[in-house]
Amino acid sequence: MGSKHPVQVIAVTGGKGGIGKTNVSVNLGLALADLGRRVVLLDADLGLANVDVLLGLKAKATLADVLEGTCELRDVLLNGPGGIRIVPAASGAASMVNLNPQQHAGLIQAFSEIGDNIDVLIVDTAAGIGDSVVSFVRASQEVLVVVCDEPTSITDAYALIKLLNRDHGMTRFRVLANMVHTPQEGRLVFSKLTKVTDRFLDVALQYVGAVPYDENVRKAVQKQRAVYDAFPRSKASLAIRGIAQKVNAWPLPANPRGHLEFFVERLVQQTGTGL
Question: Which terminus of the chain has a smaller tally of CB atoms within 10 A, N or C?
Fold first, then answer.
């Protein structure tokens, strides 16, 4: 594989807040680490960071410091549970919410320096469909849209997919149903979403699976631990494990797509100079 192996970059997004996106990101990261992958989790909710809080970690430096040039990206990595590493964002920093395109590009390119020590980068995006969400999602090669069975979650997921499709030409999305009460509910949520996307957009949605509603998730949050770590035999943890096995089999990126991407220079080197 050489030192320039491709890195799988997965954006976990969803449009709406409160759908358990960060929980999905953290626990998926732990489950992938269990499968032997070297995982880094980027808290890309730049103004309202919460991954470190969710896991009871204290960040000494954050992405705000990387942007200011006072430290390198590798200096802000936190060691999380299960061997995953976390890139914390700043909490309550208004300056981080309205980054300009150059600053976004700078952050995305800063990841290149850790490329040799990572197999999977999970990008936990902010809620909404702002510029920051769009630029992180476009820079990732897989988009995992988290939805739950409530009308606002489905309309917000649709709005995000529509924006990424119509304005940025993205056509492939993976969908995960979260907090479902039955396996059928997950499929139903997916079909509600595809009903509108099939009608109005030219996109391919793939159903990845569902994570059941599980009281253990809330208990784990209160303990400031990931449910996968605190309650490994819980329904939610077992579902995440199954989803991680699917994610683990997704193809690795083979060639750059002609716009700003995480680790794009690795792909350029792999494909030679045939750009």
Answer: N
